[in-house]
């Protein structure tokens, strides 16, 4: 089972769907650790002054942002902490867009959303509504102390939250310098028909499991073979355990919330809204915020 990253809610209009956020991918590749050949001790990174070549202690390290060439603005830790967005444990849907309009360059990291207690029905409702309309929910969410733009999509029986890159992080097509020969090239119908026929002849059903990283497979085969031959070294190292966040939100009368959302053009409830959470829900959300902090 994937580890739950946090528990919170998807919010659109006055509707809140209690969900758990889980990673949808496994980190691939082979992890190579540095070891001292003589003693098999782990080898780490040192903090080195690049001018003097000497190691310096952590209390003498500050963080700076280059403002001009060779000129930096130094920021204190408390100034950086104050700039972090507030962790809300909520996926706030701000609008719905045509899922086909999202360029692939914007897609970043996928996560699964699983419904929490009493959220199954409204979870399924949102999933089917997105599927029927061909729309995707454009949302804001805070993950790992970073505010992200994300898109909510139905994938089979589940909802997937895909974080997106900000527009400033994506290079425009004009930056790759496509020549006029490419931009203005004319394609003959006969050539297009043959290319289409070739594509159709090579087409097959999506089956990603039949492909794998050959380098990783060869490295792990070599590791397994040497391990079976008794070529193992003992390395002492510590391990840091991570803690999971928790706390969710309950759902109240779905039909009534949908009616109010439509009447209010999808604006979220204010603090004085009659659709505000019960006292128990409020305690749960406060608990969630404390855990997130």
Sheet with most strands? 7 strands, mixed, barrel
CATH topology (fold) name of the domain at 6-27 and 70-169 and 244-292: Ku70, Chain: A, Domain 2
Q: In CATH, what is the class of the domain at 6-27 and 70-169 and 244-292?
A: Mainly Beta
Strand order of the largest sheet: 1-2-6-9-8-7-5
How would you classify the helix and strand content by structural class?
alpha+beta
Sequence stretches where pLDDT stays below 50 over 5 or more residues: 238-251, 269-293
Strand content: 15-25%
**What is the helical fraction, as a range of percent?**
25-40%
Q: Which overall shape is indicated by the principal axes computed on the Cα atoms?
A: extended
Euclidean distance between termini CA atoms? 25 Å
- Total helices: the number is 7
**N-to-C series of helices and strands:** EEEEHEEHEEEHHHHH
Number of strands: 9
Average per-residue pLDDT, rounded, comes to 78
CATH architecture of the domain at 6-27 and 70-169 and 244-292: Beta Barrel
Rg measurement, Å? 26 Å
Polypeptide structure, described:
Helix content is 26%, strand content 24%. It is extended and about 70 Å long. Strand 8 and strand 9 (158-164) form a beta hairpin. Strands 1-2-6-9-8-7-5 form a seven-stranded mixed barrel. A two-stranded antiparallel sheet has the order 3-4. It has helices at 77-83, 120-133, 180-183, 189-201, 214-228, 254-263, 279-292; strands at 6-12, 15-23, 63-68, 71-75, 90-98, 107-115, 135-143, 146-155, 158-164. The chain has a domain at 6-27 and 70-169 and 244-292: Ku70, Chain: A, Domain 2 (Beta Barrel), CATH 2.40.290.10. By secondary structure, the chain is an alpha+beta fold.
